[in-house]
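Translate sequence into structure tokens.
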Amino acid sequence: MASASESLSHLQARFFTKQEQYAVPDTPFSVPATVTVTELGALINKLLQGQREEDGSSIDFDFLIDGEFLRNALGIHLEEKGISSETVVEIEYVEKQPAPEPIGSVLHDDWVSSVHASNDWILTGSYDNAVRIWNEDGENLATLQYHSDPVKCVKWISKDGPVNLLVSGSHDNTLLIWEWNEKTQKHKCLHSCRGHERSVDCVAVDTTRTRMCSGSFDKMIKIWSAVPGEGEDEPSEIQEQQRKKARSEGRRPLTRTPMMTLEGHKEAISSLAWLTTGELVSASWDHTMIIWDMEHATQKSTLTGTKVFLSVSHSERNNLLATGSADRHVRLWDPRQKDGTVVKTSLTHHQGWVSSVAWSPVNANQLISGSYDNTLKLWDIRSPLAPLYNMSGLEDKVLCTDWSIPELLVCGGADNCLHIFKAHNIEPLSSTAGSSEMEQDQR
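Result follows.
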């Protein structure tokens, strides 16, 4: 027996787009209820050909109704979402996001635990105890060695050139502040930040580039100055001892102590993100995230999950948090909600622990996730049931991801490789909305 959607013959639809180069007349069109994305795309291309010079090429479009991607026949979608077919249906269309293109894999000597890109450079940390700087072509510009155990986290502090600052954290319980001159290709370790009792697993630098926070397996969060030579490194007599050592043994980093320690988690800290210069979010193995008031060093709120949190990323575009967890889900949280519904959406497609998540720096709807299931996925939050694309070429579990450069998606993992993917047609989008199913695995 035919459903209500199948029995409908035609619907009235009006098409609109925010991409002005693809605008068509806003008059309603009569379309079959059985029409699909492919057929709607053909209709839009036919209308555009009447307005533009023929170039023989067609454009792939996606279609949204009330902010949700259309993936079924139009009539079925309206029926499932409870949208009336008696009135004119407003359908937005956008150029389809093309698949990211793999442009290279860079082999390391051991697992790639952490990655952070900035401008033209990519920073990696590895289980071989080394920090490395690469260009987008995979050329190794510098190898920074001072840690005595595997490097677990890396971040650029400032990338103003030619002299740049970066920080690395390690299983050796320390963070190191480095200086790297991109012109001379020389580097030096300026400060050794000491205070944690166990492995330093995550680090985040605030927007002023003057402070950084670290999270450790010792359950503590520590705040440090990120400015070289600023603050009390050690009592003056110890500083003098360091200087004597530097003269006798070669250049050694000065010891730096924390400005502040935050206690509150019951298990290891897995990930950190600054929300503003006055707010910090920490994710932990204790199944909670804590939002901290940094001015008063107090807890503002606690967000509770069901499993271990492995990663948290904050979007400046939509102010949402994305998390990766041991229950295989990516979740989107709105910490501003007061009605208790802080979890807005779950993105469910991974088959293993979600070890790392990263928002797009320019598009409020898109993020990437890496997992122990050996996949890196590109998501649009308007389509939570399946990713836009699965990146190919990954041979082992993903440990880290980064999307700091709009055109580059990068990840590293247990296959000892840094993988670099080129994203195309990156345009700033600010709206966030709804959900629908979408599955377009990259082949």
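Note: Residues 112 and 126 are 4 Å apart (CA to CA).
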